[in-house]
Amino acid sequence: MSDLLTITDLELWTHIGVPKEERETEQRILVTVEMEIDAKAAAKSDDVKKSVNYSDVTNDLKELAKKERKTIERFAEDVAQMILKKYKTTAVTVTVKKFAIPGARHVTLTIIRTK
Predict the structure, then answer these.
(1) How many domains are contained in the chain?
(2) How many other CB atoms sit within 10 Å of the CB of residue 19?
(3) Are 10 and 30 in contact (CB under 8 A)?
(4) Separation CA 113–CA 55 (nearest Å)
(5) For position 92, which CATH number holds?
(6) Among 2, 31, 28, 5, which Cα is nearest to 17's?
(7) Nearest-CA neighbor of 69 among 94, 98, 92?
(8) How far apart are CA 84 and CA 52, in angstroms?
(9) How crowded is residue 5: how many other Cβ atoms within 10 Å of its Cβ?
(10) pLDDT by residue (tens digit) across 53-78?
(11) Global confidence as pTM
């Protein structure tokens, strides 16, 4: 597969942070997922069922954000594994931006996972 479907900077609110106090309040994170797909069949037929429905992926990401986690590493891994298991993709790149350090625009983690 050589086509990429990307959801960029999806704003999510989640309880995340190593100290318990940090997890007590929802925090804003931005999530980008880049999925390697084969878009040829959907392009030819104009049928989303032959591709990855990015609306469904977005809803699944919102559901994942409801669970409390300590690290952005765990969140990114959970996202990657869910996408690889549930959707027609052979590889996924997940980027999570967290606004945790005063004076820094954000902290970013990017992971790449394949089937």
Answers:
(1) 1
(2) 8
(3) yes
(4) 21
(5) 3.30.1130.10
(6) 28
(7) 98
(8) 11
(9) 19
(10) 999 999 999 999 999 999 999 999 99
(11) 0.94
The share of the chain scoring above pLDDT 70, in percent, equals 99
Per the listing, tokens 């704003």 go with 11
Domain that holds residue 35: 3-114
| DSSP SS3 for 113 | strand
Buried b (16+ CB within 10 A) or exposed e, 20-44: eeebeeeeebbbbbbbbbbeeebee
Query: Cα torsion for 62, 65, 71, 75, to the nearest 10°?
Result: -40
CB 75 within 8 A of CB 29: yes
For residues 3 and 17, give the distance between their C-alpha atoms in angstroms, rounded to a whole number.
34
What are the tokens at 7? 């959801």
- Dihedral, 13, 86, 76, 62 alpha carbons, nearest 10: 0
The amino acid at residue 60 is: D
